[in-house]
Amino acid sequence: xxxxxxxxxxxxxxxxxxxxxxxxxxxxxxxxxxxxxxxxxxxxxxxxxxxxxxxxxxxxxxxxxxxxxxxxxxxxxxxxxxxxxxxxxxxxxxxxxxxxxxxxxxxxxxxxxxxxxxxxxxxxxxxxxxxxxxxxxxxxxxxxxxxxxxxxxxxxxxxxxxxxxxxxxxxxxxxxxxxxxxxxxxxxxxxxxxxxxxxxxxxxxxxxxxxxxxxxxxxxxxxxxxxxxxxxxxxxxxxxxxxxxxxxxxxxxxxxxxxxxxxxxxxxxxxxxxxxxxxxxxxxxxxxxxxxxxxxxxxxxxxxxxxxxxxxxxxxxxxxxxxxxxxxxxxxxxxxxxxxxxxxxxxxxxxxxxxxxxxxxxxxxxxxxxxxxxxxxxxxxxxxxxxxxxxxxxxxxxxxxxxxxxxxxxxxxxxxxxxxxxxxxxxxxxxxxxxxxxxxxxxxxxxxxxxxxxxxxxxxxxxx
Length: 464
Prior knowledge:
Blueprint: E1 2-8, E2 11-21, H1 24-36, H2 43-55, H3 57-68, H4 72-91, E3 100-102, E4 105-111, E5 114-118, H5 126-137, E6 141-145, H6 151-163, E7 171-173, H7 178-186, E8 192-196, H8 199-208, E9 215-219, E10 224-228, H9 234-246, E11 256-262, H10 265-276, H11 297-308, E12 313-316, E13 334-337, H12 345-348, E14 355-361, H13 364-371, E15 376-377, E16 379-383, H14 387-396, E17 401-404, E18 416-417, E19 420-421, E20 429-430, E21 438-444
Parallel strand pairs: 5-6, 5-8, 6-7, 8-9, 10-11, 10-16, 11-14, 13-14, 16-17
Antiparallel strand pairs: 1-2, 3-4, 4-21, 12-13, 15-19, 18-20
């Protein structure tokens, strides 16, 4: 039996919780889920879960803030989104799997079975909840393994589901690290894996399930670009990019890690750097804090290694800080100016921290080419006053989410959410999550009795 000792990245001296775990719990949880599986849709139960999540929003928000370091104002928006997901699923998402009838042709949907949900650390409650509620509504049973970085918030969430009256085995929580995630993904009793995280882990899941007939819904991050065209409102574009790059300390899969500027890119980079230096960094519970710490010491170390390998002009350097003298995972934002597109990790891979690379582009076409010069295709934003220009650029961008004169972050639960290339596997979440939690069944109805005038050629019917 191993133990996760969960320390808050906001204050590493604070032990939030300890979670014993073993691989045996995977077998037990999957067995419980299989026993509980009846195929019964549970839309009313999802509504009850939403009501309980709403009643516990503040408790959830504080757990999220301490677990991963999000400022409390931001953690509250995550907690609020959890209850909203219940309403959207029940009222809108289930319409997508309602089925239909056209004469003798009928479309029905059946649940997948037992679904494993592997959660990320950056939205430790909202993103798993976005899989769990549609899965339960469609009649599946769930085994949820949260990120080992954020086990405490998952426990609070699980308590809410128990309070809502989720039957035993319909929802199961297992704690643990990568070994538990691998065992759960490969378990023969699991019919599908719903994952949010990195491309590397997504590939490991694919490998672990190779040869098995499992449904995989994978969301695997991005290297997102904000395109600022010559006619854009400069101040509005600066603010939107600033917010996109540094909210959540850059730890969003939709964060803008690249700004591509048709015009004076150096001026844009300097303005971003000037404002970034003024961002309030501090403990999640402190008033007026925009940015908290990174989610763990490992995340901080990885971010700093990525910056050391950047090899680009530094407009604003990053450094560790100790607000209120706290020993935490706090770091200031950084801004780089990139003159040449190169096939190097800094320009192609997620840093998952508060860094922005600013690129100059001579034209709209060059800006699009730079934006597409990555293996990812999750989110982008286009800043222009022209509807025609936006439409043209949107069609050329290899992304699943493209916002107009808005941040790259902040996806809507009433739209599908997912990416292309390494960002996903064509199973978008958000509103469309019910579509990977239920499988279509085609039904053709015939006559109950035999019409002997319609026998196939060559069939001679003989009465007994």
